[in-house]
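Single Protein Entry

Contents — chain, fold
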Amino acid sequence: MSIKKIFIVNPISLFPKVMASQERTYNMIKRLSKDHIVNVATYIKSNYQLLESQSELKNVCNKFHSIPVINPTNSFLRRAFHRARYQIYCNFFAIHLNIFTGEIINR
C-alpha cells in the first residue's frame, strides 16, 4: 500500500475532549497516521484549545492548522457587525463572504 497524504478538517476543536465524537476523530487520526501522512485543521475558540491541540497532536499528525472562529464569545454585537459586513459585501461589491469565512493560520 502506498503512503497517502490525508487532510482532515474537523468542524469542532478536538481538545479539550468533552464529546465522544472528538475521541472518535482523534482515534481515527491516530490510526491513519501510522500508515499515512495526516494533516489536521480544526476551529479554535481560545488560546487554551490551541495550546492543548498543538501539544496533543504534534506526535500524532504531520501538521496541525488552527482556524480561528469569527465569533468565539457568541456576542450579539459581533454577530450584528458580521451580518452588516456580509450585507455590504454582497450588495455593493457582489462578493459572497460564505466563500471566504475561514483563514488557515500556521502557528
